[in-house]
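Good morning,

Attaching, inline, the backbone tokens for the sequence recovery test we're adding to the shared suite. The designed sequence is right after.
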């Protein structure tokens, strides 16, 4: 009798524990996913969190309640458990489609205007400041490339989304993939089912880390040129900026940081307007005769990388389209965002170059008069420092997922403890990544060279080469001849531009590295 009583009491305690865990877990999941959606709506906060391969570490595990057992209660609404390490087994009845549907519950969809804001925020960032320098070495051909890159990136964004869909048995077009990584894996299957995803992840990590380095470089550059009379070198300003950024290693989420991203973006648009207004005030002195029809063969390939890098947004487009209320509006959204970007970038680059001509610097705000430069540059430094955590956190998430949390395929032990806390050596690796961005910024403090190298290597690959290749591989039987022609032409032209830009940028970086090492 006593044994039976203890058994019933144990069952009651277990039931209460499960209900409490289910309520808390469901509430946490709803809050967590709502916060993530808000960050996406603010704009490009979780670049990699929008990637399904990256988000596999954020799996939704349906808790088994006692509803299936005799005498049990039905599961509670929202009875889901948010697992960071993704080690929880899925129930047998939960297919991929069911999990996808569950993960979408409670996530408000975004409108086409909100999706357009995300794309605009990605392709109209502070790296636009390097475009006048591209005109310096490319002249009118540089302006043509700004238009050409907008057209190509808009087209490749659309065909990348087309790779997410296939016809089912009923002849209906259905979404069968969720991310850039899924598309890459599908192209390499069945021989190498994970090779494509790994290539995309490596390219993404390189681009994210290089973006972090660029933020440190531009912070040191802007502060040094804002206060040239202070006995502080550009390297010292970069060290100060990195000291401010070191707490990024302790980040658990981007909720706090993402609140500032909208204000930072708006401030950046205001700064662009101020620069253009100053240039217009000197319209009488514009040097139209300085805009060349010929190019600098040695430096123009670097300009190609700069222009391409300013348009990179493909990596998060699949998830962005999946979160839209009406995915049919995606093509229209891509059209007007890239048309607007093309016009604004072209005008900004041309007007700024006409104002300073051959004196145009790598970061155009360095050409402003000292009275205006300091104020504008301080705002830009604040934006750079607040923008740094976004690509840094995304890169950390990909590295942790790929190397430490990929189940049995992980190369190293999990960097999170059983309670979900980051282990000390995991924190050390994060700090090491921050220090690495500092070292790169110190030894290669050249904004244009780093931007050109990144655009030529990962930007051209993710925006030109891979989308056209995947489109041909997955949908070649249904493509019209002009689509095949466009895809092949983009792949060939993109490959040539990528190789030439990478070689020239790398040569410039090696020379700069040697010069700084000798100093």
């Amino acid at each position: 009798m006593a044994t039976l009583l203890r058994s019933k009491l144990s069952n009651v305690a277990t039931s209460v524990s499960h209900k409490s865990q289910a309520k808390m877990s469901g509430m946490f999941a709803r809050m967590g996913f709502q916060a993530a959606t808000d960050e996406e709506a603010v704009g490009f906060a979780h670049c990699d969190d929008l990637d399904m391969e990256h988000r596999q570490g954020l799996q939704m595990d349906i808790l088994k309640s006692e509803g299936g057992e005799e005498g049990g209660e039905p599961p509670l609404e929202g009875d889901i458990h948010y697992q960071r390490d993704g080690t929880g087994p899925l129930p047998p009845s939960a297919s991929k489609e069911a999990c996808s549907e569950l993960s979408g519950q409670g996530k408000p969809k975004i409108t086409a205007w909100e999706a357009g804001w995300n794309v605009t925020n990605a392709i109209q960032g502070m790296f636009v400041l390097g475009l006048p320098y591209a005109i310096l070495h490319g002249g009118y051909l540089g302006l043509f490339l700004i238009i050409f890159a907008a057209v190509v990136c808009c087209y490749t964004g659309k065909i990348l989304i087309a790779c997410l869909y296939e016809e089912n048995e009923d002849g209906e077009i259905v979404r069968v993939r969720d991310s850039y990584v899924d598309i890459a894996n599908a192209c390499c299957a069945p021989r190498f089912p994970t090779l494509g995803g790994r290539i995309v992840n490596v390219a993404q990590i390189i681009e994210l880390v290089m973006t972090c380095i660029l933020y440190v470089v531009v912070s040191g550059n802007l502060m040094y040129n804002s206060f040239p009379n202070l006995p502080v070198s550009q390297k010292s300003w970069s060290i100060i900026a990195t000291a401010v950024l070191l707490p990024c290693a302790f980040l658990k989420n981007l909720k706090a940081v993402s609140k500032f991203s909208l204000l930072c973006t708006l401030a950046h648009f205001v700064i662009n307007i101020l620069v253009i207004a100053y240039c217009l005030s000197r319209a009488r002195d514009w040097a139209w005769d300085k805009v060349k029809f010929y190019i600098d063969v040695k430096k123009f390939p670097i300009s190609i990388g700069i222009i391409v890098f300013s348009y990179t947004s493909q990596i998060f487009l699949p998830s962005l389209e999946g979160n839209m209320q009406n995915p049919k509006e995606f093509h229209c959204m891509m059209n007007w965002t890239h048309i607007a970007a093309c016009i604004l970038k072209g005008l900004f680059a041309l007007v700024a170059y006409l104002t300073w001509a051959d004196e145009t610097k790598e970061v155009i705000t360095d050409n402003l008069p000292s009275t205006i430069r300091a104020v504008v540059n301080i705002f830009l430094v604040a934006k750079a420092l607040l923008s740094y955590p976004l690509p840094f956190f995304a890169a950390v998430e990909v590295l942790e997922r790929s190397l430490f949390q990929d189940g049995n395929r992980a190369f190293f032990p999990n960097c999170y403890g059983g309670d979900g806390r980051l282990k000390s050596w995991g924190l050390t690796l994060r700090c090491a990544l921050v220090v690495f961005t500092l070292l790169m910024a110190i030894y290669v403090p050249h904004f244009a060279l780093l931007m050109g190298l990144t655009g030529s290597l990962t930007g051209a690959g993710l925006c030109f080469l891979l989308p056209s290749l995947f489109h041909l591989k997955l949908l070649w039987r249904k493509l019209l001849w002009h689509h095949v022609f466009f895809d092949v032409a983009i792949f060939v032209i993109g490959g040539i531009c990528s190789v030439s830009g990478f070689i020239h940028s790398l040569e410039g970086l090696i020379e700069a590295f040697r010069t700084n090492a000798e100093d």
